[in-house]
Amino acid sequence: MSYQQSSSVITRKARVWPELPADTVTLPTPPALPDLPQSSIYTTIFLSLAGLAVYGYVFANLNIGEVNFLIVPFITISGSMAAGSLIVFLVQLVRALRHRRYLVQHYHTQLQEVEQRLKLLHWHERQAWMELDPPLARFEYKSSVYKHLDVKPLLQYPYSDQNMSLWARRPGDPDFLRMRIGIEQRPATYTIRDQRGEDSISLPARLKSEGNYAKSLLEAYARVFVPLCVDLRQQSPLAIVGASHRIVLARELMHSIVSQVAYHHSPEDVRIIILAPYSQEVAWQWTSIIPHTLLYDARLDGTPMPDTYQERACAIGTAAVMDQLPVISRELGRRALLLDDGQQQSQWPHLLIVVDAFDGPGDLDQPTPTLPAMAIPPSHPTQYRRTRLSDSPLRRPEMALALSRGHQLGVSVLCLCTSQSQMPQTSQLFIDISEEQPPSALLPASEEKVASKKKHKKTATEEEDQLMVGIQARVHSLRENPQSARHCLQLDSAGLEDLRSLALRLQSLRAMSTRQLKMRTQVDLSTLFDPPLDLNTYDPFVLWNDPLFRTPRPMLRFPIGLKVGDEVQYLDLHRDGPHGLLIGQTGSGKSELLQTIVLSLAFLYKPTEVNFLLIDHRAGLAWRPFAHLPHTTGFLTNVSSPAAIRRFVTMLGTEANRREALLKEGKTLPSLVIIIDEFTEMIRSETSVLDDLLNIMQMGHKLEMYVLLAAQRPEEMIISRVREYVQYRLCLRCSSPEDSREVLRRADAAALPASIPGRGYLLHGDNQLDLFQAARVTLPFIQDQMASAQAQLNSLLSLPFKGK
């Protein structure tokens, strides 16, 4: 798994979000069925038939001839009334029954139309959620959870620049570090409005089946099976708790979460750190080749490095964990300091620290035996403790900031515990997969039947499958006023073969950098040249003969740092000078910037083109490595007494007169760069030398003399006189806005971060203000390399190119 592959660059794509339905579906109101014929019709028919019977009896039993002709009309009338009433009754009854049947059928048709619409909305929502968070590899496609869905596992996507979902999530997205752990059932995004009200409880018998149909629609489509996701950024630390007999299932869930993080997030946005015991080396070996475990180094942010220099933050075993913990501590401390300085968290990649359980035999080192009471303890006991890991990394002090201020520092912690007592005290969320099912005596009859089916592993249809999904895990929130636990019905897992396949496909990918507009926090001077200087094979003649900085005479243009977007910041003594002012309080990087200026000039220009005169009011430790440079013609330290200061000014006057005489003779002289550190202290000791110094600066450009005055803070009385004689101004962090205004006419330098030495402003040209990060030099290299090349540099002085 260590072989090299050709890398492929992955660029960010525009995200196409699946549309979630937000419709409102209203269940139809049950119809009001018409009443059947009233009881008055029955009474009329009954009385008519009774009168007809009475008249018939009288007509049949009384032989009164003269009244027979009177009885017949009554019989006829009563019979007609009875027949008419019966006919009216039957007509009304048929009409009422037909209308009732029509209303019931129409209501049933409306319910069917609503069901078709709900089916479509239900499918759209399930499909949308599955597209956002598909499973890694395997899933039960026959399950009702995935029924009718077009689900494509992550391993089946192309791992190329054509993949729209690969590394698509960005820090500003709502689903950044929101990872799937399984399947849950929750209310749908669309709304089902039930307008039946309380009347649905007392429906007529003819509408009972239709009412049950409407009720089943409400129960079946009001909730949706969707991925259950947890937010690693907002809910950190997150603990997965699995008892000893389910620890394998808990570790598979952790693997699934880490694999999704690696697929959905670019290494530019998320870096992963693994802390695992040696017993789990096989389980975590796949993470050692994914690009997300490359060790994050702020000094190398955005710079591709050869594979030989790449370190992995995959610590497996106690020794590797003990080596990784100080790295984590330093990075967290650096972020805390930058955060206190007002820097935004979005400037750093998010760190995900994954801590496996250290509970197995041999996972931890045995504690050091207690020393006898009279034994003398070692002089440095911490040396011995640093090499042993006798407790879980979660309890180490190096992890304190990650557990307490992780959200502020852009750090998330995902840990595996075998019991709740091992969870970090600051845990925000924990996934409990160690809970057992309740006893069957406590289950309702329906759930007991389902549990019985599941226990005996009987086959089930797809409709029964939904009922047989049991709770496999519970997600508990530990914040104040927590909501009820969320139930995970199907828990995700990832097999080792799937994880290896994912890692091998991610191994050769790298992200197209989107952080180029970010200013670096540390810059190496050797990288500012084209090509970058190889310090092991450095040849001074290569740059000394480079025509880029000679057209045709030396330009005195040299790099001093980087601006936003890795643009090189140059200082041009001809265009920006000749004289300058450098202000920076203690710890701002002033001495390092002075060293950068001297060494950058020494790299680019020959000793016959540029000379240095280095003066320090104090001990001059910053200048000592440059004392033996062939460019250095003068190296003065401890110039603090009035007599020493006076001798220095006299020397400058003599040099100015000598140069003036030689120039009149037409001779060419090397440019003399005079750097005076702590000049305000020197002038305060001998105020009369300021006038002489300003006189020399006034004619310095004609004499090829360039003066740079450096101090910790601007003295108002001194700076007010010097300001007219300096053309460019370098200002690092100042102690107050007033000091910044003295130099830049604005208070920006007072707001520079204290945690980033070398960050400053250059005011030059036509009031052009540039923010830059000063380059740093490695003093041991300068001293050793220049000493070894001293013979070559001395031989250069004897070459006949003087004046050319």
From TrEMBL:
Q: Where is this region: Disordered?
A: 441-464
**InterPro entries, A to Z:** AAA+_ATPase, FtsK/SpoIIIE/SftA, FtsK_dom, P-loop_NTPase
Matching entries from Pfam families are given as: FtsK_SpoIIIE (PF01580)
Q: Which residues bind ATP?
A: G584, Q585, T586, G587, S588, G589, K590, S591
Instruction: List where the protein spans the membrane.
Output: 41-60, 67-91
Q: Which UniProt keywords apply?
A: ATP-binding, Membrane, Nucleotide-binding, Transmembrane, Transmembrane helix
* PROSITE patterns named among the record's database cross-references: FTSK
Q: Which SUPFAM superfamilies match?
A: P-loop containing nucleoside triphosphate hydrolases
Q: Which residues form the FtsK domain?
A: 565-741
Protein's UniProt name: FtsK domain-containing protein
The species this protein belongs to is Dictyobacter halimunensis
